[in-house]
Write a structure and sequence with these properties.
The structure holds 2 protein chains of 2 kinds. Chain A is built from 15 helices and 24 strands. Chain A is of the alpha+beta class. Chain A is globular, with a radius of gyration of 23 Å. By secondary structure, chain B is an all-alpha fold. The chains are: A alpha+beta, B mainly alpha.
Chain lengths: ~600, ~325
Amino acid sequence: MRSIKLVAPALAGVLALTLAACGSSSSSSSTPSGIKVAGGIQTPATESLTGGKKGGTLTVLNHEDFEHIDPGQTYFSIDYEAMYATQRPLYSYKPNTFSAVTPDMAESAPEISADGKTVTVHIRHGVHFSPPVNREVTSADVAYAMDRGTNPNVANPYYQGYFSSIEGAPKATGGPIPGIQTPNKYTIVFHLTEPQGQIVADALVLPVSAPVPEEYAKKYDAKSPSEYGNYQVATGPYMFKAESSGKVLGVGYQPGKSATLVRNPNWNASTDFRPAYVDQINIQIGGDTNVIGRQVLEGSGMVQNDTPAQPIVRLAYEKYRSQLQISPGAGDHYVAINNSHGPFTNVNLRKAYWAALDREAMDKVRGGELVTNVMTHFIYPEIPGFEQAGGLAGPKVDYNEHPQGNMAVAEKYMKLAGYPSGKYTGSATVQVVGSTGAPAPEDAQIANQALQNLGFKTKLNLVDQSVMYSKYCGVVKEQIDVCPNVGWVADFGDPQAVLDVPFNGKLIITNGTNSNWGLVNHAQINTAMEAGEKVVGTGARATAWAKIDNELVNEAVAVPYDWDKQPNIESSNVVGVGDLWNIGSWDYNYTSLK
Amino acid sequence: MSIPAAELLPGSGGEGLEYLDLGGAIAARSPTQLFWRRFRQDRVALASLGFIVFLVFVAFGAPLIVKALGLPGPAVENPNLTDSFGSPLGPSAAHPFGVDQLGEDVMSRVIYGTRVSLEVGIVGTGIATFIGVVTGVLAGFYRGWTDTLLSRLVDVVLSIPILLLGLGIGAACAVRGCVGGAVQPGVGEILFLIAFANWTYIYRIVRGLVLSLREREFVAASRALGASDTRIMFREILPNLVAPIIVYSTLLIPLNILLEASLSFLGVGVRPPTASWGQMIAAATPIFNTAWWYMVFPGAALLLTVLAFNLLGDGLQDALNPRIAR
């Protein structure tokens, strides 16, 4: 899961869904997953990817700074926007899909062997690094990029999660990794110890697969932490503005202040599918989100990059609707409930809580239907398996059928749980840990109120979001009962990327930061996931993981409440194009000026 | 004790001198009467006192007042009172101060918020004052190593930025509490912080006065009569400190109310669903453009309360210590 600050989710997959691109300026539009968006508002499904005007400078206003600019380290939506404009991983997504990948640095789709233990990728000819390297990219550069993902100085955050099945990867500290072979200049082969070819192939959309020239980067990677990001070279249409030596820091990137992306002189449009309309992208960092929002709506040539403040979204909807863009499939939020300790080890108590919770109210405090959908199961829109798992309506179980909460259904399950009065009469005090920063406290209070309505004594505490994850909800020994503000962003468009880490009991981490916040550890689900990991083929995987999703609902492992939709705003003379991936952020490669 | 006025005059036996006939006994005014005579002339201070009495009444009678006004409880959520964007609805007859993002009645929460502010202001100040008085009297009376030890401790405590300390304690005690669970998140944590930091101000004032008073004749007389140290400190010296203690404590109350509001604003003070003005102001900040009422009413309550305590403190200062009156 990538870092998300105010919203949620995003990356790869292989299922090719047909775009249901409908809608006009006067009626509502819907996305491939059927998410409706009010008329007049742009969505990735309605935006044209072609025909933009070439030239001009786009100004991006960011409240937040980048976390990393090194492709081996980036794991944050704001980082990704610049990363996918400057670097070319083996595969990537076009803005209007989160289910079909496009070969990027790769020449064609990955070849997965029948036993699922070998993945072969052929890379493009004629792609060159930006100055000062200038030479053509080869498979060795991709291999080095993958190797350095295991380098402690790079400390890639997801490598072991998706690539640990590569031979030698688990123990590698920078490579060369025996399981990554380059038989020729344009071919790279991944040899795996487990039949997990599909998930490895899917994960090649992640930035770590973007080529890095070893002879240039090695000296920077030797430093701790690696300084390659500050001297990086590009393969994409843009590059961070740099000195002739390649130095970016202080030139094209001033932390906390600004960044400048200029055209990569070595980029050859014939090798790329991106149009790259604008000539330059000036990114300004810092400022109040309300102020930024007004500047963008009333100004010229600007987009706001991070999530606009709620009043700004409303203002845009009411007065500047054509400048508002909504991207569905921006991840999810759910209430994690402790399945392994405390009162909620009882499945009927979990179902009672699900039934009692006013999920619609929780979504309302997040901005209402414009930016949310009531979450009814765990695979989220735009991810393969969403429809098979129940689509928007979700599985037909009584505790899921009342988004506003239903105490009668809740009391039914309380009685089944052994509380004849329909109220909890045990002695446990439920520890609830939520996060600060609107709208999380309001959601936490609604979740807390629902517990009290069921008769629980509760103790609600709100802490900073990072503290919530790193000190409480993500720490097994803390045994927090309820975490109402957790959310998930898929790293790529595959259902395993949505369900595996947060709900697989085998992935509970007891000596570090755990992302299975509900300590979900049910044998039948673990077994199903183990089988699902080995399924090859997008359709088959969607079906297999949709069944797992249904199991999760049947066990009420958590209470889902919000499928996020990402609002984006632009100035009136900007033709912004948002993504269905990368939590729905703007895509610099497709955005143009009028 | 009433003394006939004539007895106060020299030569009241009447030999060789003529005196005015004052027409009977005149009662001398007690210190309390003198204080009240001066205090009641300060209309601003009186009004402030009246407002504070009103606040105390509101705090104690919050449930009854809310019920009498026909308002929902402070933690009653009603999503139907927010629009389709989740924005709260403004003031209306049913909700005179409007509602918040959860559809909770702002007036009800402002009324209940009085409880937290007064609890923190008065109880916290009381604890800090008690510690400050006891340690100040001990340091001033005994001097020597007791004074040195306590005064250096005070120097250390005063050098700690209280807001940062509050943030630190808030983070450290966030979920499980700290000091073996003695300090719990919320009001308990704030009371601890106030007691820890604010006793030092009272200590310094009391110590200085005791250093002076211990040299006075009435102390020497008590000692000569065989009074114990404890009796001298707390029966002879302490009553002389009541006026400054009252004045400075009163001035500490608004500071502590503001501290609570600041910590709650920063997210480490009182926890929801308990109503606190600072927390309400914090929650209102992101939506101020569309829901002004959510910030204005708790803000006004905070402003008026702090102002009232400050003006009362000034009034008490003038009434109890007329020599330094403005």
